Amino acid sequence: MDDEDRFPWTEQTVTTETDVHPDDSVAERPPALLEQIEGPGSPCRIKLDRGMMVFGRSANSTVQLPSSEVSRTHLLIKRDGAEFVCQDLNSYNGTFLNGVKVHSAVLRPGDTIQIGNIVFVFRDRI
After folding, report:
1. Nearest to residue 48, comparing CAs of 75, 8, 72, 88?
2. Confidence of residue 30 (pLDDT cuts 50, 70, 90)
């Protein structure tokens, strides 16, 4: 991933052939996205077009977030059929969905996800 792909972000897309979902109806659907509305690097849009995406400070994360309030591997977002699930990866500061600390939850359009000082809004399509 080039530095310009990491930050400052305006839009980030990462795809590989191994991330294609076996259910063709899901694979044909436009990808969902996270719209970053607060925190370092905002505003930006991140397409959720991989089966699993790790968000964190680490250079090994799918989406690297430039904030000391974010753990190295903080959050996993994965596609499960037609749904997207967010899962906290035992982060230090936790993951908040609509203001409530969660370990794992299914995302719905308009949900806010806060990790550290970064806030995203989940959109089910572009």
Report:
1. 75
2. low
